[in-house]
Amino acid sequence: MVPQRRQSQEIFMQLPTGSHVVVADGTQFQLFHNSGTEQDPSLKAVDLPTSDESAHNAGQGDTPRQNEEAGHAASVAAALNAAVLSNKIKQLVVIADPSTLGEMRKLYHKALEAALVGEIAKTLTGQSTDDILKSIANA
Q1: Helices (H), the chain
Q2: N or C: which end of the chain has fewer CB within 10 A?
Q3: What's the CA angle centered on 136, arms 135 and 138, to 5 degrees?
Q4: Short-list 50, 47, 61, 52, CA closest to 106
Q5: Tell me: the pLDDT tens digits for 9-19?
Q6: Regarding beta strands 11-12 and 4-5, do their DSSP bridges make them parallel or antiparallel, or are they unpaired?
Q7: 21 contacts 31 by C-beta, under 8 angstroms
C-alpha cells in the first residue's frame, strides 16, 4: 500500500482489498476484513482465533486493572501474531488506544510488523465501521 496525497499535500492511508483491521482497547477488541476495494472499502466483522489465555496474565502494570489491560493487549497481540504466521492475515491495520497499542507493539512478531499497513493510536472500540473507515482515511 502506498500512501496517497490529497490536494493539500497531506498523506492519508488507504485500506488494501483483503486486508484486516483490528480495533482494540484494554478490555475488548474487534477484527474486521476489508471485503471491498481500496477505493471503496467495506468492513465485515470476522472472528479472531483466541490465543493462549496465559497471555492474559502477562501484563505488568502498577494496578490490577493495568495488569488486566496489559494482559488483554498481550493476548490480542499473540492472536494476531498467530494469524499472521498462519497466513490468515496478510495485511493489517491496528487501531488501539495509546496504552494498549504500546503494550501490543512490544509483542509484535517480525512477520506481523511486516504485515502492518498502519497503526492508529485512538480509541474506536464500539464505533461504527463508517467511523473506523473515516479514521483510517484521515490517518
Answers
A1: 64-85, 98-105, 110-115, 129-137
A2: N
A3: 65
A4: 61
A5: 445 688 999 99
A6: antiparallel
A7: yes
SS3 category, 10: coil
Q: Which domain holds residue 105?
A: 4-137
Give the H/E segment covering residue 31. Answer: strand 29-34
User: Which residue in this structure is represented by grid cell 498467530?
Assistant: 82
Provide the domain count of the chain: 1
20-46 pLDDT tens trace: 999 999 999 999 999 999 999 999 999
Q: What is the pTM of this model?
A: 0.83
Span 55-72, pLDDT tens digits: 444 445 567 777 788 889
User: What does the buried/exposed string (b/e) look like for 18-42 if buried means 16 or more CB atoms within 10 Å of the residue's CB?
Assistant: ebbbbbbbbeebbbbbbeeeeeebe
Look up the CATH number of the domain holding residue 25: 3.30.420
Per-residue model confidence (pLDDT) at position 54: 42
